[in-house]
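Incident log, support desk, overnight shift.

02:14 A customer reports that sequence design results differ from what the structure should imply. Their input is reproduced verbatim below. On-call engineer (initials T.W.) acknowledged and began investigating.
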């Protein structure tokens, strides 16, 4: 049985045999078993379009267990929020988690489904020193920022596109990929069937394997 522990009461991470879930009003933090205090691990910041942290944790949990990645799934992010407001809140939460847990600061990955993926793109743009890579699931760069409009886009980062040919965002995702590659990003394109939906676990596994090779 995985314990639910209040963040405020959570002790510092030492060698942990069993996984932990820290569950509060702002997020679910999943810390897989087998982590060691003298190691640093990737952090996945996962966003849904409707503040449904459980769905994003479910998408990434197999990756977390297999590769020892910490998952921070937001309960606050949802469609319709001002990017700057939610970006500020999320970046503060990320920094708090980094300060408390054994996170490799060079391997912080923003990810999301639909509007959550759009905000993952925004985080990589607005906080380039914090976010190293993005994994976007049937999501596009917001039109206001596409092509570097209104905000200078960072160069030479990493992106994975989880795309479905029957999704209404499919063609826009191709344009986003081309744009990022033109400014030096390395990208991986992974397709799945199902339309505008959360990709299956195997797609996230494939993304993780590629990211392990690319993130240094």
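02:41 Re-run completed on a clean worker. Output:
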């Amino acid at each position: 049985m995985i314990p639910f522990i209040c963040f405020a009461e959570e002790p510092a991470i030492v060698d942990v045999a069993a996984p932990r879930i820290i569950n509060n009003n702002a997020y679910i933090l999943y810390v897989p078993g087998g982590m060691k205090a003298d190691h640093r691990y990737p952090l996945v910041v996962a966003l849904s379009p409707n503040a449904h942290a459980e769905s994003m944790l479910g998408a990434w949990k197999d990756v977390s267990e297999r590769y020892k990645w910490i998952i921070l799934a937001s309960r606050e992010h949802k469609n319709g929020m001002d990017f700057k407001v939610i970006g500020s809140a999320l970046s503060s939460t990320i920094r708090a988690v980094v300060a408390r847990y054994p996170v490799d600061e060079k391997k912080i990955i923003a990810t999301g489904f639909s509007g959550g993926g759009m905000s993952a793109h925004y985080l990589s743009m607005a906080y380039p020193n914090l976010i190293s890579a993005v994994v976007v699931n049937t999501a596009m760069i917001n039109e206001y920022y596409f092509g570097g409009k209104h905000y200078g886009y960072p160069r030479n980062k990493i992106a994975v596109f989880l795309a479905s040919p029957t999704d209404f965002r499919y063609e826009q995702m191709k344009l986003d990929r081309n744009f990022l590659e033109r400014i030096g990003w390395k990208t991986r394109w992974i397709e799945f069937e199902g339309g505008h939906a959360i990709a299956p676990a195997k797609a996230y596994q494939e993304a993780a394997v590629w990211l392990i090779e690319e993130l240094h």
